[in-house]
Amino acid sequence: MSSIFAWLTGLALWGNANLFPVAETAASPYPQDSIDDIAIWVDPADPARSLIIGTLKASNQRPVLPTGLLLYDLTGRQLQFLEGGTPNNVDLRDDVLFRGQMIPLLAVSHWYSGELEFFTVNQVTRRVERLSDTSLPTGMKKVQGICLYRSPDTQTLSAFVTTREGVLNQFRIDTDPAISIEKTGEYQFRSGTEGCAVDDENQALYVSEEITGLWRFDLTDGLSQSPVLIDRTGWRGHLTDDVEGITLLKTGAETGYIIVSAQGADEFVVYDRLSHAYVTTFDIEASGKVDGVTGTDGIDLTTRDLGAPFEEGMLVVQDNDNTDADGELINQSFKLVPLAPLLRILQKAEQDG
C-alpha cells in the first residue's frame, strides 16, 4: 500500500515545466480557427525593430471576408495586413539572391488554391511585399505546411510542402531572374501532415503526422530514404495528437533542440537535435493580463538578442482559445515568450538527465 501511495503522490506532484508570455499580438479580426502559423524576421540593423509575420487563413463567415498576412512588432501591435489568398503556413530564409540583391525570402502556402507565394520584408519600411503578381501552383490539394531548406552541399533552395491528405512534396526554388518552382521529390504518409522544419546543417527534415507522431527524413539524397519515427502519440510516446508546429532551437552549428507542439495536450515537447532523445515537456501559463496557451498550431523562435525582454531570444506560438483580462473568450492571438527561461529549463534537464 505504501509503495502505491508513493507512486500516486509522485504522479500528482509531477508536471510540465512552465513558461510565461510577456505579451500577445492584437487578436485576429475573425472568430474561431482563423490564424495559424508565424515566422520571425530579425532586423539585422536593429533587432529591436524585428517583426512577426502571421497567417490569417480563414474568416469563418459568409460572405467570406479577406484573408492574408498579418504583420506585428515585438509589442504585438499590428503594423500591416496584406490581403490575398488563404495562407496556412509560412517560413523564412535570410540572404536569398533575387535580381542581384540578397533579400529575406518569405514562402507561404495557400490551403484553398494549393499554391505557393513568395514575399520579402522591406527593411526600410518594415512592410511585407510580394515578389510576383501571381502565385505558383503545386498540383497539390488541401495544402497545409511549408518549410524552406538550403542544401549545405549545393546551396540549392527548396520548399517542402505538406497536405491534409498526407502528401509531402519537395520543390526546388529558382529565384533568378524570377521565382519558379519544380517538383523534385514526393512521399506519402498514411494520414494528414502539417508542421515541418528543416535542419540545414544536419540535412534533416522533421514532419508532424498529426495523429501518429514526429518523423525525420535524412536529406543527403532528397526524399529518397524512408523517414524514421522519432516519437509517437499515445501511451508509447510523449506526444498527444494533433501533432502540429515544429521549430529548431540551435545552440551550436549542429547542436540544440527540436520543439514540437502537441496541440491536443496544450503542451510542447522537446528533443535533442542530434540524438533525438526526449528532453522535457513544457506548457505556457497565464501571466498578468496575458492568458495561457492552448491548442497551438504554428510556432517559431529566434535566439537573437532582440532587446528587453527578449535579450536571449523569443518564442512565438499560436493560441487557440484566447481570453481577455476578464477570462472571456475572444479571437485568437499569437503569444510572445522570452526564451531565457526555456534555456535554463533545458540546461537543467540535460544536467539531471
Overall description:
The protein is globular. It has 353 residues and is mainly beta. Helix content is 7%, strand content 48%. Strands 1-24-23-22-21 form a 5-stranded mixed beta sheet, with helices on one face. Strands 7, 8, 9, 10 and 11 form a 5-stranded antiparallel beta sheet that branches. The N terminus is likely disordered. The chain starts with a helix and ends with a helix. The chain has 2 helices and 27 strands. A hairpin with a 5-residue loop joins strand 14 and strand 15. It has a single domain, classed as TolB, C-terminal domain (Neuraminidase).
Question: How are the SSEs placed, and which strands pair?
Answer:
Blueprint: H1 2-13, E1 17-19, E2 23-24, E3 35-41, E4 51-56, E5 68-72, E6 78-83, E7 87-98, E8 101-110, E9 115-122, E10 127-130, E11 136-137, E12 143-150, E13 157-163, E14 167-174, E15 180-188, E16 193-199, E17 204-209, E18 213-218, E19 220-223, E20 228-232, E21 243-250, E22 256-262, E23 267-272, E24 278-284, E25 299-302, E26 314-319, E27 333-338, H2 340-352
Parallel strand pairs: 1-24
Antiparallel strand pairs: 2-27, 3-4, 4-5, 5-6, 7-8, 8-9, 9-10, 9-11, 12-13, 13-14, 14-15, 16-17, 17-18, 18-20, 21-22, 22-23, 23-24, 25-26, 26-27
List keywords for this structure.
Neuraminidase; 7% helix; 353 residues; 27 strands; 5-stranded antiparallel beta sheet; mainly beta; 2 helices
